[in-house]
Design goal:
Two copies of one chain form a homodimer.
Chain A: H1 4-20, E1 26-30, H2 50-55, E2 64-68, E3 74-77, H3 83-89, H4 95-101, E4 106-108, H5 112-122, E5 127-128, H6 135-145, H7 165-175, H8 180-203, H9 210-224, E6 227-228, E7 233-235, E8 255-260, E9 262-263, E10 272-277, H10 284-303, H11 310-327, H12 335-341, H13 344-347, H14 368-371, E11 399-402, E12 405-407, H15 410-419, H16 428-435, E13 440-442, E14 445-449, E15 454-456, H17 466-475
Parallel strand pairs in A: 1-5, 3-4
Antiparallel strand pairs in A: 1-2, 2-3, 6-9, 7-8, 8-10, 11-14, 12-13, 14-15
């Protein structure tokens, strides 16, 4: 937790921004509850809601709060512990003390938020709330405001249509630009992420079960941080983006994609990807594709700076990728025409990167289209570009990922061939003959936009050039 | 997953038992959904619902099922994947194939369960369901059956009053008696638990941060199993039962309680506790208390056999504990009178053990009073005995924990002294003078009730006698 004035400052900033947008009434925050893994009292490791962490910092379950936009009054709602809790969970500070530690003077019992909301509604005032991602929070909002839990859920891209636009936009505008203290926490997460990836690279040995590498990686972040910032992707099927099955032994000749990050104890995230040759050396064909992805990663970083949009960076990067694929005879024709036609999506059906902060896809539950797109930008419908989570014009303090990739997805290639999509540009024959068992490659770094350019957020860059990777693996 | 006939056999067993209790209509099962950790698409590691695992085995989210008690018809409800899912998550078998792999011939889309339930209700048939522990499952039942999600939650001890008594009792009667194949899986979890505890013991070094030991322990189970079976307790404040904060450095002269277990990939659990002297050697006072707890653990195991109730084992064990405490001058008077008066609860405010299986507190969400108590047994209101989760008359196949403990909880001792509880038996002066900074000790093994006695479920027993522990620590 930061000093109390940090949170007080953020809250008054939020109120100011919301009022500038014409909002009145009260804003409410619902912190997370414990979540059962097996049964009610056997829970997953507690993860606080990120907006709550940003404005209130209290890392404990069953907290809520209200901010009065008109009077500036703030109140935290939670229940003090009883003697039974003291036996089972140890002595703990009172809610009043906890509230004071984050600069909030008023505290009430958890259920008292009902009264606050009822009073506001009865007086015809608006109650502002943010989209949620857990059933507990949705049910709590439903019981406070009426309606069914489903109405309060984030839908992902669009966020939640019923949520307060003023509140969402104000939160996004603040959390998009990281404070120095946040960057320091992200760097801690990056340091743990570096350790995780180093452990993974050292663990790549023929015959080892993937899960053993994953376990060793997660130990790094559990020992010093909260844990993983998302489910580790470690797979010899890199063409399957979110492959979370880890039961296979490492076999020779494959590419192992490791996409993993750490969450610091402060809950800031890191997110890196590297792709290793399972036997320690890339084949000629692997090296050709790898070199294109590596070049794209470096190129995207080199043009990342304030003033450019990340959509432009994405488009320039996939154009460069097509140049490389063209040289290999996998595509043909004019690169700009291919970009316009959506050819890149066949090879990289995802965006170049996303915001990162307290969430690994920062604020995704507030609505990707609001978080990642400026008011004058519209999300594309194309495969690949349409998945770009961060398209905005960059400003200093943005923290984004740079993660180009090339994948050969048989089901997708067959679909395009069958439907004749972009057939004038694509060498389906060569793809089918030579690349159906290739897998995929992705290379990802975390990047801070600075005053005059960009800086990679890692104490040291993980080995990335084919030669560096092979040298590191040979030495291990 | 086991062979398909295992699940088919269990389901027909369930139907038969429910019908023997006079039930008719249909029984429905709601498998778990993914649970957001940060935002909707960033989830905790998926954990399937245990009753679902027992009867259907399918370890994937968004499955449901119905069993027709009258016709014997079975149906599984889930949605096949689309092309987008194939890109992101890889190709996967169809729902029909998955259903067949667990012996179910009928499969329908997920939403079709609504129609099945509606039809049953319209025909005046009963719909049987089990209490749930997650908001998603509660909300799904509420949308199927009407009412609010809160009505479908397990309350812990009582289960859920609205749930089907026939279904709950039938499930409990089956899951209480472990099959050979289940015992084999529990032993795998025990093997991982053994590794975790060995790692912990080796990690006890002055100056190390507790979290570093926890991380290393969890790595053992993540590398070969699903993960931890419950949030690891590793604390120099053993008197706080569920202390999950691990930020303290190991300091000399303390007792470190390590209560942790593994969940195998099959989701069966283990659960062990050991208590280590932080400096490698117990002090005289620590050794005195430790020896009592150790003796109680061995004694409880020695009398565990078919025919005795675990309530009797608990009571005989705490009587033996009082003998030990009496010899140290901490209590005085007749031991049986003290047991009747509830004196043991001051030192061991929990029960001797619980059932263990797919859940670490097996089936706790079905209602502890049903799971752990025979029809002719009533739960005590006393501190300690009242927390006994397993009181039943033992039968071969029961898997239970044996976990006596002695704790010196200043807040509780002060409360009893202030209120004069059992004051004729308790030496409050000595407690306050000598034991307020002692902490606590717990020693726990996992035990299978066999045909003629009991067997500890671990390839090798973790070092437990004070001499064994000190020797092991000296060698590390």
């Amino acid at each position: 937790m930061f000093e109390s004035n940090v949170y007080a400052g953020r809250r008054s900033g939020l109120i100011r921004r919301m009022k500038e947008k014409g909002a009145e009434g009260i804003a409410i925050f619902i912190g997370n509850a414990e979540t059962a893994a097996q049964y009610r009292d056997n829970c997953y490791k507690f993860r606080q809601e990120s907006n709550w962490l940003y404005y209130f910092g209290i890392d404990a379950p069953m907290y809520a709060a209200s901010l009065d936009l008109d009077s500036g009054e703030e109140c935290i709602y939670a229940d003090d512990v009883e003697i039974d809790d003291i036996i089972w969970n140890g002595p703990s500070p009172s809610v009043r003390e906890v509230a004071e530690s984050v600069g909030v003077k008023c505290s009430k019992e958890y259920a008292a938020l009902d009264e606050t909301v009822r009073t506001a509604l009865a007086a015809g005032r608006r109650v502002h709330w943010l989209p949620v991602s857990r059933w507990f929070n949705a049910s709590r909002l439903a019981s406070l405001l009426g309606g069914s839990p489903e109405q309060f859920f984030s839908e992902g891209k669009r966020g939640c249509p019923g949520a307060s636009r003023e509140m969402v936009e104000s939160v996004v505008s603040m959390r998009l630009v990281k404070e120095e203290r946040e960057i320091a926490e992200i760097e801690k997460a990056c340091e743990l992420g570096y350790e995780m990836h180093t452990t993974a690279r050292k663990g790549v040995k023929i015959g080892k079960i993937e899960q053993e590498i994953v376990g060793a990686m997660e130990a790094c972040t559990l020992a010093k941080g909260w844990g993983i910032s998302f489910a580790t992707i470690l797979t010899q099927h890199g063409e399957v983006f979110h492959c979370h099955s880890h039961e296979n032994p490492i076999v020779p000749g494959k590419l192992l994609v490791v996409d993993a990050g750490a969450e610091a104890n402060s809950h800031y995230a890191s997110d890196f990807t590297r792709t290793y040759p399972t036997g320690g050396r890339y084949t000629q064909k692997q090296r050709e594709i790898y070199s294109i992805v590596y070049d794209c990663n470096d190129y995207a970083f080199s043009i990342t700076r304030p003033g450019i949009t990340y959509r432009e960076v994405h488009l320039a990067t996939v154009a460069r990728m097509l140049e490389g694929l063209k040289a290999l005879g996998l595509v043909r024709g004019d690169v700009q025409e291919m970009v316009a036609a959506g050819v890149p999506g066949l090879f990289m059906p995802h965006g170049l990167g996303h915001n990162m902060g307290l969430d690994v896809h920062d604020m995704e539950d507030l609505g990707e289209d609001i978080v990642g797109y400026d008011a004058d930008q519209k999300r594309s419908g194309q495969l690949g570009l349409g998945s770009l989570r961060m398209a905005r014009r960059l400003v200093p303090g943005n923290v984004i990922t740079d993660e180009p990739g090339i994948y050969f997805i048989p089901a997708l290639i067959e679909l395009w061939r069958k439907e004749g999509i972009c057939k004038e540009f694509i060498n389906f024959e060569l793809l089918k003959k030579e690349y159906f068992d290739f897998g995929g490659i992705r290379l990802e770094d975390d990047v801070l936009v600075t005053e005059d350019g960009a800086r990679r957020l890692c104490p040291e860059r993980l080995p990335i050039s084919p030669d560096e990777v092979e040298a590191a693996m040979a030495a291990e």
